[in-house]
Design brief:
75 residues; alpha/beta; 3-stranded parallel sheet; globular
Length: 75
């Protein structure tokens, strides 16, 4: 099972992607977040395989969020 985290500020898009993932064999939505500020404190507990991220987010951008994410993940 491939565990995916979604970071998207538009609720309809975020929820739609989560539904698609959960309805597709071999994939599951492990978490949905509006911002990186909300996701980063939870990411180590979730330990996803993939992060699907918007770039234009309020607060920390998706690009800055990925840079920050590297501090939390085992690479």
């Amino acid at each position: 099972m491939i565990r995916v985290v979604i970071v998207e500020d538009i609720a309809n898009i975020r929820e739609g992607i989560a539904s698609l993932l959960n309805g597709t064999d071999g994939f599951s939505c492990a978490g949905e977040f509006e911002t990186y500020e909300k996701m980063l404190p939870e990411i180590e507990k979730i330990n996803p395989d993939v992060i699907l991220s918007d770039i234009g987010l309020p607060g920390m951008s998706g690009i800055d969020g990925i840079k920050e994410l590297k501090k939390y993940c085992r690479m």
